[in-house]
Protein: Bifunctional NAD(P)H-hydrate repair enzyme
Organism: Gandjariella thermophila
Amino acid sequence: MRGVWTTEAVRAAEQRLMATVPEGTLMRRAAFGVAGQAARLLTEHAGGVSGRRVALLVGAGSNGGDALWAGAFLRRRGVGVTAVLLNPERTHAEGLAALRRAGGRVVEAGSAGAALTAADLVVDGIVGLSGKGPLRPGAAELVAAVTAPVLAVDMPSGVDPDTGAVDGPAVRAAATVTFGCRKPVHVLGAGAVHSGTVHVVEIGVERELPEPDMVLLDAADVGAAWPVPGAEDNKYRRGVTGVAAGSATYPGAAVLASGAAVQGGTGMVRYAGTAADAVRARWPEVVATGSVTDAGRVQAWVVGPGVGTGGAGHDVLEHVLSAGVPVCADADAITLLARDPDLWDARDPDTPVVLTPHEGEFARLAGEIGPDRVAAVRRAAERFRSIVLLKGHTTVIAHPDGRVLVNLARSAWPATAGSGDVLSGLIGSLLAAGVDPWLAAGCAAYVHDLAGDLAAEGAPIGASAMVEAVPDALRTVRAATVTG
Ligand SMILES: NC(=O)C1=CN([C@@H]2O[C@H](COP(=O)(O)OP(=O)(O)OC[C@H]3O[C@@H](n4cnc5c(N)ncnc54)[C@H](O)[C@@H]3O)[C@@H](O)[C@H]2O)[C@@H](O)CC1
Ligand SMILES: Nc1ncnc2c1ncn2[C@@H]1O[C@H](COP(=O)(O)OP(=O)(O)O)[C@@H](O)[C@H]1O
Ligand SMILES: [K+]
């Protein structure tokens, strides 16, 4: 698991650390890390380091100081460095002096044209964790003139550090070097895209950090959490997943969710609904009946995809919520809960519920999301005493106790009709096996995204291909637990 910490937590940790080390130490460590990545990018994009040209965009604070010190280190490796000062009277004095001593050039923003045109690499030291709002006009104009790849110091300037929201001009970096740990800007929404490849450089602050504010799962975490049957197991012990999905109008949702539950490794899938024939035809291993009332015992239910939002869907959801087993409520089930909150009364308060809305369903259920997706999902999880998984390029999964898991998509190929049905089937499979619901949602989101990427191989896919690729994705995560 990799942690993500808010700027508030990072600042507090930095304060504690700064009291124990000589002034300037942390900035030099940070800048050394920036210079190392700059050299790597120069080699990659310009074929070498010595003799290449770097322009530094330098703002008013310590982020600019980092860039100036990095420039001084790059000078020692024979790089031609020009610092463009956005705010000359508030430039970091020690950093500026260090760059000048090392033979760097310094220009003001108005005369930056030639340096920017000649640069093989641009270092973004405009603003860091104290950034508020989009780039201001002077900085935005300079950034618009950049054609070389950009290396962001700590974070891409103009993005909100704690939400990843982009609300105007912002730097789009090829790579970002950040210090001590990842911050929300690197993993949430547009911020993740604007950050490019994120490199974390240790500067000591990591030792001072409390519990993370959110976590990302790695392949090895998912591989370790995904159930593997042992000699003692049989199909019932592995878990029976109930799927209450699909309808005469939408039989495909039932086929996809049932198929994903099968491929996810549940011991048995019991399907209940009016798409039983379609499910049997594609997945003969599924035990299919026409109604939830005669489905038999299950250890978890997946309910919602394609069931419709009429009376029949309502009754199915009510039955499933009162069954006393964990429930993954998706799609129409969420719309039904939004429309008729009394349905919650059917729920046994001790049974876990995982809600998996896309943005539209989330808005129906819990109101507009706003720029702070994590805060919105946390509030919804607390309000509904449920795990809430908000889908998207960044999937955010909150526990009612405030814990948050984030899954950053490898590609956008999974944004295709029926893809959500696949996700709910995978979650159901893990819930039936008894995996902790918050972790189950996180692992399913990871495997869903990986299956999409493996199936796509760079070309468009349909949701059926994602179901087919689930075993490959599971082999990949299991291999990661072996190799560490
Ligand atoms: N505190 C520490 O221990 C360390 C801090 N470091 C660096 O320090 C940075 C934080 O530095 P500061 O707190 O001095 O502040 P920043 O450098 O993030 O911001 C400086 C100033 O930029 C202006 N600004 C805010 N939003 C802007 C916008 N949208 N467009 C243009 N200008 C804007 C504000 O006047 C702000 O005070 C970190 O991101 C990191 O790069 C590193 O040197 C490592 C150690
Ligand atoms: N831009 C994107 N990049 C990566 N994955 C995405 C993106 N947009 C949506 N997804 C994923 O695709 C799936 C779509 O689910 P959903 O909207 O419920 O579709 P459907 O109802 O058609 O099954 C979700 O798992 C979501 O996280
Ligand atoms: K920056």
In short: Residues 2-213 form a domain with the Rossmann fold fold (CATH 3.40.50.10260). The chain is about 45% helix and 15% strand. The radius of gyration is 26 Å.
